[in-house]
């Protein structure tokens, strides 16, 4: 008997479901796309426990009659294409006919639907891909789908789902993307029992951006409007100084389909490159409309990956257009300098070292904590390294406003001032938290902080952690929070940027499912954001404080994130380099 066999329909559906439905947000994406294709004017999504327990999607679109409801769960049944030629002229979000049977095969699934021409609708109940019941019922026109216990029959897939807060944030991102793409549709999202996002229909993308990101995003961006040959590009792009700590505020839509594409990302980021700092990204909401026959959306079952038939041409068109739009912001040299005409003895880097005593002041530091309160950090594996430093240490100078140059009786030290301060704050902050000695400075005027919908979920879900860390945030309505209090040791930082960066770090921790280290990760994040920055001039007293406080820490060689703090060049290395015998 041969070894090859035809898989059963049940196994085939589960395999297909693994490609189409990776997690609750995948199911929401497929169902919302179906609702959009059904010409819905309002789409409501209700989830419980990040969609792991329940997902309900309701629309007021065209609906289905009794026969179509039954047929919709046959694999590759669709109303959107009929011939092979239609694959080259796809104008809908869905077309593969895989979503409904795939989702129904890995959940308990109920669908109710009615077309406006009929008085009664249909209800179908499916469990694990098996139809349990189908009947005629009275229901509103449109479609209502309820999914419960997603992946109940695939425990391996269910085991790899992450926290409810993280899964909720992914669903929020899906709703945000399609709310931006279709401002004329009313989108409503609710995570039982408390998270709600409500975006009534508006007439422009600017109004939708205001609903989601707030007035700041509108004020700090410019319209994008380009039309040439077969391409039309529109949306809004942020001012070069309006930067974000990650790519969550970059949205690309091709023919109103949200996509993740390296070519588009590369074209835009290359245009912004002269303005970008390390770990900073622009605010971009870009729509690219192309004739359907110039791209292939049938690349992956999730339909978020596409291929362009002329990628090099598209890259150049986009990059040139964005360069032109950003041209007014690029610095222009009024008096070009001919370097070749400069005397060879003229120092081209004229500020390598700032002598001690000629620096300005830096932010205030928290008061010293008795050495008895210091503890060993558990944020990473640490081993004492006292042999690196040999007291006493003498401050020599500051180099490029970034590094402290010092010496001990065995060589020269180069100390990164930012990560040195980060290590000091981390250990002091952690000990204060352990002894519940956090002092909170209440702001005289609460500071409004505008966040994205997914960030709102994270703040709401982890408010207790933030309060424990000394940050008092209260919801002010919509996606705005009021910052009312901060840890008292934080000085001279841009609070809005700091809070957003801390929330992004929180999101990264939740994404990695590192819940057990969440508090320590947040202590490290706050310490990093509160530490003095590079390009900050320090006087001798401040540098002396940094070095002395650093030596009191449990691990002066590394910051809490693992970056090195000190580089040492020993006397032996110096003498060997210059071929000298030690005196």
TrEMBL record:
The UniProt keywords, alphabetically, are: DNA damage, DNA repair
What InterPro entries does the record tag this protein with? DNA_mismatch_repair_CS, DNA_mismatch_repair_MutL, DNA_mismatch_S5_2-like, HATPase_C_sf, MutL/Mlh/PMS, MutL/Mlh/Pms-like, MutL_C, MutL_C_dimsub
Entry keyword DNA damage = yes
Q: Name one GO cellular component term.
A: mismatch repair complex
Domain (MutL C-terminal dimerisation) ranges:
395-538
GO BP of this protein: mismatch repair
Keyword Hydrolase found: no
Domain of life from the UniProt record: Bacteria
Give residue ranges for domain DNA mismatch repair protein S5. 209-327
GO function term, MF aspect, one: ATP-dependent DNA damage sensor activity
Q: Which SMART domains does the annotation name? A: DNA_mis_repair (SM01340), MutL_C (SM00853)
Against NCBIfam families, the record matches this protein to:
mutl
Q: What does this protein do?
A: This protein is involved in the repair of mismatches in DNA. It is required for dam-dependent methyl-directed DNA mismatch repair. May act as a 'molecular matchmaker', a protein that promotes the formation of a stable complex between two or more DNA-binding proteins in an ATP-dependent manner without itself being part of a final effector complex.
HAMAP family named among the record's database cross-references: DNA_mis_repair
By sequence similarity, the record places it as follows: Belongs to the DNA mismatch repair MutL/HexB family.
- Name used for this protein in its record: DNA mismatch repair protein MutL
The species this protein belongs to is Candidatus Fischerbacteria bacterium RBG_13_37_8
């Amino acid at each position: 008997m041969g070894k090859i066999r035809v898989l059963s329909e049940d196994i085939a559906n589960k395999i297909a479901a693994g490609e189409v439905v990776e997690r609750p947000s995948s199911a929401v994406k497929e169902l919302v796309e179906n609702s959009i294709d059904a010409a819905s004017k309002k789409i409501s999504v209700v989830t419980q426990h990040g969609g792991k327990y329940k997902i309900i999607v309701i629309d007021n679109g065209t609906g289905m009659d009794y026969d179509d409801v039954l047929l919709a769960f046959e694999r590759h049944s669709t109303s959107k294409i009929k011939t092979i030629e239609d694959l080259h002229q796809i104008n809908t979000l869905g077309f593969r006919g895989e979503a409904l049977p795939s989702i129904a095969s890995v959940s308990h699934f109920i669908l109710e639907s009615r077309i406006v021409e009929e008085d009664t609708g249909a209800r179908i109940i499916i469990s694990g891909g098996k139809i349990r019941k189908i009947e005629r019922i009275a229901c509103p026109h449109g479609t209502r789908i309820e999914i419960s216990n997603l992946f109940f029959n695939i425990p391996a897939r269910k085991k790899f789902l992450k926290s409810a807060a993280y899964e909720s944030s992914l669903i929020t991102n899906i709703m945000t993307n399609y709310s931006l793409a279709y401002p004329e549709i009313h989108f409503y999202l609710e995570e039982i029992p408390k998270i709600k996002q409500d975006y009534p229909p508006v007439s422009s993308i600017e109004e939708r951006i205001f609903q989601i990101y707030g007035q700041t995003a509108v004020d700090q961006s410019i319209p994008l409007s380009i039309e040439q040959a077969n391409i039309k590009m529109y949306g809004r792009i942020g001012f070069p100084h309006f930067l974000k700590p990650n790519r969550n505020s970059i949205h690309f839509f091709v023919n109103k389909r949200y996509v993740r594409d390296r070519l588009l990302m590369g074209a835009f980021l290359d245009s912004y490159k002269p303005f970008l700092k390390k770990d900073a990204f622009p605010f971009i909401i870009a729509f690219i409309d192309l004739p359907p026959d110039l791209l292939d959306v049938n690349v992956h079952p999730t339909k978020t990956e596409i291929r362009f038939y002329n990628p090099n041409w598209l890259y150049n068109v986009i990059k040139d257009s964005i360069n032109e739009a950003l041209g007014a912001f690029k610095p222009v040299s009024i008096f070009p300098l001919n370097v070749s005409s400069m005397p060879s003895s003229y120092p081209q880097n004229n500020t390598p070292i700032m002598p001690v005593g000629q620096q300005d002041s830096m932010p205030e530091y928290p008061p010293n904590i008795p050495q008895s309160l210091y503890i060993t950090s558990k944020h990473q594996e640490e081993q004492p390294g006292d042999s690196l430093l040999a007291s006493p240490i003498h401050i020599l100078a500051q180099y490029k406003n970034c590094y402290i140059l010092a010496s001990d009786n065995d060589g020269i030290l180069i100390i990164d001032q930012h990560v040195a301060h980060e290590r000091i704050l981390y250990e002091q902050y952690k000990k204060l938290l352990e002894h519940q000695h956090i002092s909170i400075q209440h702001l005289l005027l609460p500071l409004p902080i505008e966040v994205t919908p997914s960030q709102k979920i994270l703040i709401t879900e982890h408010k207790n952690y933030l309060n424990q860390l000394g940050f008092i945030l209260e919801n002010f309505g919509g996606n705005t929070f009021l910052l009312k209090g901060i840890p008292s040791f934080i000085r001279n930082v841009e609070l809005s940027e700091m809070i957003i960066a801390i929330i992004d770090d929180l999101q990264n921790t939740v994404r990695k499912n590192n819940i057990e280290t969440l508090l320590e990760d947040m202590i490290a994040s706050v310490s990093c954001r509160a530490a003095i920055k590079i390009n900050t001039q320090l006087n001798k007293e401040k540098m002396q404080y940094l070095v002395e406080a650093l030596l009191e820490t449990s691990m002066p060689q590394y910051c809490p994130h693992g970056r090195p703090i000190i580089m040492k060049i020993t006397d032996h290395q110096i003498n060997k380099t210059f071929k000298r015998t030690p005196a």
